[in-house]
Every structure is written in structure tokens, then in C-alpha cells.
Amino acid sequence: MFGGNMQKAMKQMQKMQADMAKMQEELKERLFEGTAGGGVVKVVVSGHKEVKEVLISPDVVDPEDVEMLQDLIVAATNEALRIADKTMEQELKKIAGGMKLPPGLF
């Protein structure tokens, strides 16, 4: 009944799946940066959600206020992870061509 149209749709779906898998792997290798405190703390994470680097300006290191430094590190890390997630979602949506992607796909 659907003949060639169904076959064509299946091939398009397979190509899209392959493209998405390739994009996911490429994005996992990318690095994403988050900052806090006006840039005094910078955290770099990979698309694998691994912390790769933490840079702290010596100006912000105050032995009397370790809690503030800890908060800045957490904030910068969370920002980097949000940027990574958002970038991955946007790139995969481009491939999906407007199709709604299921949660947790990346």
C-alpha cells in the first residue's frame, strides 16, 4: 500500500539516527566553559560531563571565606554543564528537523 514511500521514510529515519549518533559522539568530545564571580572561577567540562579543568583567580582565594570559593566553583560547574546540555540539545534538534526528541536522548 505505502510501497516506496514507506521505504523512503525508513531510509530517512535510519540516516537521521546515524547523523544523531555521530553528532552525539562529536559533541561529547567538545569542551564547554562555565564561569562565576565575573570570571574569577572558570570550569571546563566535556560533553561526557567530566570536569576537565578548574581555574581560580588568586584574587578570589581568601582563607577566611572558603565557602564563597566553594559556591563559585559549584556555580561555574553547573553553568558549564547547562551550556553543554543546551548545545547538545540544539545540535540534535537541527538534525531531527523539528521532530520532538524524547527526554534523555543525549
From TrEMBL:
One of its GO terms (cellular component) is bacterial nucleoid. Keywords: Coiled coil, Cytoplasm, DNA-binding. It holds the Pfam family YbaB_DNA_bd. InterPro entries: YbaB-like_sf (IPR036894), YbaB/EbfC (IPR004401). Residues 6-33 form a coiled coil. One of its GO terms (molecular function) is DNA binding. Gene3D superfamilies: Nucleoid-associated protein YbaB-like domain. It is found in: Cytoplasm, Nucleoid. Binds to DNA and alters its conformation. May be involved in regulation of gene expression, nucleoid organization and DNA protection. Belongs to the YbaB/EbfC family. PANTHER family: NUCLEOID-ASSOCIATED PROTEIN YBAB (PTHR33449). Homodimer. This is Nucleoid-associated protein SAMN03080614_103620.
